[in-house]
Amino acid sequence: MSDILLIHGSCHGAWCYEGLITELTGLGHNARAIDLPGAGQDTTPYPAVTLDSYAEAICDALGPRTLLLGHSAAGFAITAAAERRPERIARLVYLCAYVPAPGRTMLDLRRAQARQPLSGALVKRDDGLSYTLRPEVAARVFYQDCSEEQRRFALARLGPQPIAPQSAVVRVSDASQSLPRSYILCRDDQTIPPEFQAQMTADWPREDVHVFDAGHSPFLAAPAALAALIDRLAET
C-alpha cells in the first residue's frame, strides 16, 4: 500500500479526483486529495494565494513517504513542495503537467507552446487577481473524451484560478530533481499539446515517461486505467 496525494490543476479542486480515489483505494492505496489555497472549498482570499502557499498546503498534507501527483499547472506546486520536503516524497508524478524550468514561470511555459489551445479562452476577472475559463471552451479542451454526465459534473464545479501562483518562478535544485519522477503524457490532450509535453520531458529517461491514451482529464475519463498506471508507478 502506498500513500498517494493528488493535487489538482487550474480552476479545479479536490472534487475532480473522486473517481480516481475510489479506484486507487480499491487497489489498496491510501489515496486522497486536497483543495489548494483559494480553490474548491478553501476560502483563502486571492491576495494571499501564492505558489509558496500552495507548497505549504501540500507539505502539510504529506505523509512520511508519499507519492505526490500533480495535474497540469500543479506540476509547479508539487515541485515547490518537493524542494521543501524531499525526504517525505517517495515519487513525483506529473500528470500531463508543466515541468518547471529554471527562471521560467508556468505562464512562460504556456506561452512557449507552438500551439495555443487556450487562446481567447481565459477571462480575467474584475479583481485582477484571477481568471476563469469560458465553459464552452472548457468542455472542448478539458473534457472532450468524457461522458456528458462527467462534463456536466465538472463544468458545474470549475472555479476561478488565482494568477499569482502561475506567475511565480519555482526554485529547481537537486532536492526535487534527484527524487524518483514519472511523467504521464496524455496522447489526446487538447490543453497542453502532447508534443509540448514531449518537449518538456525530452531529457528524461524513457522509462520514466508513460504515454496514456486520454485527453487532459484522465481522472474523469479513464479513472480505472489511470489508477492501474499509478499503482505500477507506486510499486517501483
UniProtKB/TrEMBL annotation:
InterPro entries named among the record's database cross-references: AB_hydrolase_1, AB_hydrolase_fold, MES/HNL
Organism per entry: Marinovum algicola
Protein name in UniProt: Pimeloyl-ACP methyl ester carboxylesterase
Signal peptide: none
GO-annotated molecular function: methyl indole-3-acetate esterase activity; methyl jasmonate esterase activity; methyl salicylate esterase activity
Entry superkingdom: Bacteria
Matching PANTHER family: METHYLESTERASE 11, CHLOROPLASTIC-RELATED, METHYLESTERASE FAMILY MEMBER
Residues annotated as domain AB hydrolase-1: 4-228
Upper classification of the organism: Bacteria, Pseudomonadati, Pseudomonadota, Alphaproteobacteria, Rhodobacterales
Any one GO biological process: salicylic acid metabolic process
